[in-house]
Amino acid sequence: RGFCVGLDIRHLSELPQAVVIQFLEQQQGAPASHTRWKYYDEDFNAGRLRGFVAMDGSDMVGLLGLIPFHYSLNKETVETSWTCDWFVDAERASGATGIALLKAATAAHDSVYHTGGGEVTKQLFGRLANFTEDDAVQEYRTILRMEYFVNRAKKRKPWINRLPIGLAGNIPLGRLNRESASVDDLCVPGIADFVGSMVDRAEPTQGFHPMYDRNYLEWFSRNPDIECYSCSVSQHAAAVVWHPLRDYPRQTQSEWRLAFLTDSEAGAELSELTDVAVAFAKSKGANSVKALISREDERLSRALLSAKFSQSRQTPFFAFYKQPESMPQASMSGLSFLDADNATLY
């Protein structure tokens, strides 16, 4: 409290759910079911800090959400948070409100992190962060059906909807490295036991990277807006793939996302795993699949390129430190769509 004159900065948990739900519905169009999952899943929260809100009297005028997770550094596991949902009511608060919320979050942690974000977030975080890498995260995409291009064209030029081109969307593009009929036993709904077992036995390394536990992945899979699957080809490499349950402005139902969960022993099987995940997604109606990886992850880059993915955009990584001199001046490795709210539909 006291970061901004005239405002009261509080923990998100101090406000009634209905107030936060209404604020996010107004700011980003998120329905109540999404906000309840994201911030009020008690099995995931376990009493941990989930964000800060700015109050002007009895009115909520700002929010900075937090997503707790663990990371590895110097063979230790450290608890921290991703930031997300940085919103300020432009009619009732100034940019100083957003900075006050960020200061509250950094004061409550030894470190907090963020990836991606809109242009305003990127500009402000770039000035405020202790460490920034503009191209830390590389996006890869493979397009499986002509429908992907048809849908994009319809968004840009609505008159295309009047043309009789529906069947054109079913035209396949390229050739998969693996037939879909051979992957049904390798991909299962939700977060499978083989994925949970792999993350349960993971040990922190010398490296600087996220360490997602079974609780985090199961919370992620409970997102009411997506359908999620797990794929695996060995005890060292697994993938989580998902798609929206309906079309959203940011992602259609047939646009899938892919995230890898691997250990240091994963090698040649990464290409096989990628082929399996893509073939499975296509068998379920995917017209495209996207993945995010750390820019310098050569293992996953080779696997994605061999599966006919191509590089698209790059996104930044931001670190905010209470004691910068004792923290890494580098981005994390092992970044993915599981980080922050990279997979959000709002």
Estimate the helix proportion, in percent.
25-40%
Number of helices: 10
Average per-residue pLDDT, rounded, comes to: 90
Give the overall silhouette.
globular
Number of strands: 13
Fraction in beta strands: 25-35%
Radius of gyration: 21 Å
Helix-strand pattern: EHHHEEEHEHEHEHEHEEEHEHE
Structural class: alpha+beta
The poorly predicted ranges are none
Calculate the terminal CA-CA distance, rounded to whole Å.
29 Å
Biggest sheet details: 13 strands, mixed
Structure report:
With 346 residues, the chain is of the alpha+beta class. It has 10 helices and 13 strands. It has helices at residues 17-28, 32-39, 42-45, 95-107, 119-128, 147-156, 193-200, 214-221, 269-283, 298-306; strands spanning 8-11, 51-56, 59-73, 76-88, 111-115, 131-143, 187-189, 209-211, 226-234, 237-244, 255-262, 288-294, 310-321. Strands 1, 2, 3, 4, 5, 6, 7, 8, 9, 10, 11, 12 and 13 form a 13-stranded mixed beta sheet that branches. Helix 9 (269-283) packs across helix 10. It is globular.
What's this model, at a glance?
With 346 residues, this protein is α+β, with helices and mostly antiparallel strands. The protein contains ten helices and 13 strands.
